[in-house]
Amino acid sequence: MNSRRPKSSALPEGTKRTPGRPREFDREVVLDRAMRLFWSRGYESTSVSDLTEAMGVTAPTLYSAFGDKKGLFLESVERYLTGPAAFVLNALTQEPTAERAMERLMRESVDFFTAADHPKGCMVVLAASNCSDASADVAHILAERRRAGERMIRERISAGLNAGELPHGTDVDALAGTIISTVYGLSIQARDGASRASLMKTVTQVMKAWPGRTSASSKRHRATTRRRVRSGLSDVG
What we know:
Layout: E1 15-16, E2 24-25, H1 27-41, H2 48-55, H3 59-66, H4 69-82, H5 87-94, H6 98-113, H7 123-126, H8 136-162, H9 172-191, H10 196-208, H11 213-236
Antiparallel strand pairs: 1-2
């Protein structure tokens, strides 16, 4: 009697086998797996064997579907930008003022960077931050993606200035640089384990320096003080 167990025919979730044909797979599912791995480990620290294991495909299948590791990475970045990180575009285009857009961008970035259901931080900021010369082209491509996002932030603030939302003479480049540097810093701190609460406090502090906010707050404070003084004088009289 043959007591040997038959080999398991189970396939990784997201893949399927058609009789008489090579294994097929759900491209969106395996691309999502690759994206998460690159996001977590970075481009150079992720090997092809790591990818095939995580994606549940063979190396020939990976090369056939995506060209090579670089092609897979770039497609993963596009998936990240149009999928998980789509909140950035929404924040910049859905709010009525630049101030509200920037605050929403930073607060939603904190929520996203610290969420428990995916790697911490921003893939576009972190995935190619320490590439060697051999991967300089990949680092350059990610830098271009970041610059595209930075232009969007700058343009939204400029639109706010043109609409009269910001004081005359506001330095758009400096203000955009403050927001951009804050978002990048939030990403790094989240990867290092900073809590959502602590990062939200950073956003609150940054927004206190929004042009016009300090002067408006001072005016309200002076008005309140004057009312209290008048009330005190009335009581004395």
